Amino acid sequence: MSTVLFTRRGATYTVRFRYDPAVVELLKTAVPGYARDWNPATKEWTVNTGHAERLAQALRATGHQVVGLEPPPPPTNGGDPLDWARVLFTRVGPTRREPVFRALTKILHPDAATGDTTLQRELNLARDQLTEGETS
């Protein structure tokens, strides 16, 4: 199996490895074309940050060694019921926060068949708290 080196460069990661057609195919499968780029001069891939973790997970799952992109620690619940929603919103980032909020609201809203008042309230509070922190 190959060793794959991830190096953070701003909003992207460079991804380097000794040529392995299986790794190239996995990279192309895990990362959409708009989120990756091959640089033949440096012999490295550039992958958008949002897709780097998905690629690393796919590589680990197939037995490849990933260096430079450690798996995120599992979320811990320190007794605060809002932790799950804060972790989710932090993980998806501010640009995806509202679409994720709307999608989950369709499922969690008390008027929906799958609704859950408590989870919807926690989702609302976590979003409100993170939004307030950004405008302050």
3D architecture notes:
- It is a single chain.
- The protein is 49% helix and 18% strand.
- It has 136 residues and is α+β, with helices and mostly antiparallel strands.
- It has two domains: 65 residues, MutS, DNA mismatch repair protein, domain I (3-Layer(aba) Sandwich), CATH 3.40.1170.30; 53 residues, no CATH class.
- A five-stranded mixed sheet has the order 3-4-2-1-5, covered by helices on one side.
- Helix 3 crosses helix 5 and helix 4 packs antiparallel against helix 5.
- The chain is elongated and about 55 Å long.
- The model has no long low-confidence stretch (mean pLDDT 87).
What's the count of strands?
Answer: 5
How would you sum up the global shape? Answer: elongated
CATH class call of the largest domain: Alpha Beta
| SSE sequence, one letter per element | EEHEEHEHHH
Largest pleated sheet: 5 strands, mixed
Number of domains: 2
Structural class: alpha+beta
Q: Looking at CATH, which topology of the largest domain would you report?
A: MutS, DNA mismatch repair protein, domain I
Mean pLDDT across all amino acids: 87
Biggest sheet strand line-up: 3-4-2-1-5
**End-to-end separation:** 48 Å
What oligomeric arrangement do these chains adopt?
Answer: single chain
Q: C-alpha Rg, in Å?
A: 18 Å
Q: Mind telling me which CATH architecture of the largest domain this is?
A: 3-Layer(aba) Sandwich
Strand fraction:
15-25%
